[in-house]
Write a structure and sequence with these properties.
alpha+beta; three-stranded antiparallel sheet; 205 residues; 9 strands; single chain; three-stranded mixed sheet
């Protein structure tokens, strides 16, 4: 991944130099200040920044993911799609179930490893998603269906329902699926790693 360095009398000037030099908008750059020298009697103040283009990060993640999984013995193909400036890397492999793991644990661990690599390389978090053969998409749809099914039962019986333990990502899907429901509401309860969602009936007005 190519990193560029630019200098200016101020950080703003250094960023302007980066935009001109790379012919790129600031919103498409990751910028990190690496050195700031105070001005003195015989030298002027200067600020040096390190710049990485976001499109370079997108390519670097694919390359790293490709090498990592091939080194682990998988035969893979990776498809990259942008969704509102967030890249999604969908992996198709010769052993999807092993890559995903029980309840998506291996996939989650893979995402953490790649995220740590990217953070180390660019100095900050960069949002991206890794999926295996649309597992997350299918899993999300099944959670939404489950949430709506349980919500209907709670609305009918007026008895709160406790769901199985879920990670924060899964709980958020349940909350979002029922956030506008007029008959029930949701709350997370319990302690990590065993927090769960409870779907409760709303009191009739």
């Amino acid at each position: 991944m190519e990193k560029h360095r630019f200098i200016g009398k101020t950080k703003e000037e250094a960023i302007e130099n980066a935009k001109i030099g790379l012919q790129e908008l600031e919103e498409n750059l990751i910028i990190k200040e690496i050195e700031s020298t105070k001005g003195g009697l015989f030298k002027s103040k200067k600020v040096e920044i390190e710049v990485v283009e976001k499109r370079e990060i997108v390519k670097e993640i694919k390359n790293y993911l490709n090498k990592l999984l091939r080194d682990l013995g998988f035969t893979i193909n990776i498809e990259v799609k942008m969704n509102e400036d967030v890249p999604t890397y969908t992996v198709y492999s010769d052993n999807d179930s092993l890559l995903i793991g029980k309840n998506g644990k291996n996939l989650h661990a893979l995402s953490i490893i790649v995220n740590q690599y990217v953070k180390k390389e660019v100095g900050e978090n960069y949002k991206f998603l890794i999926d295996v053969n649309a597992y997350k998409e299918k899993h999300e749809k099944s959670l939404v269906r489950l949430a709506k099914k349980v919500a209907r039962e709670v609305a009918t019986t007026k008895i709160a329902a406790k769901m199985d333990s879920m990670n924060s990502y899964e709980r958020r899907i349940i909350h979002n699926a029922l956030t506008n429901n007029k008959k029930v509401y949701t709350e997370s309860e319990g302690e990590e790693p065993n927090r769960y969602v409870v779907i409760k009936p709303k009191e009739e007005e």
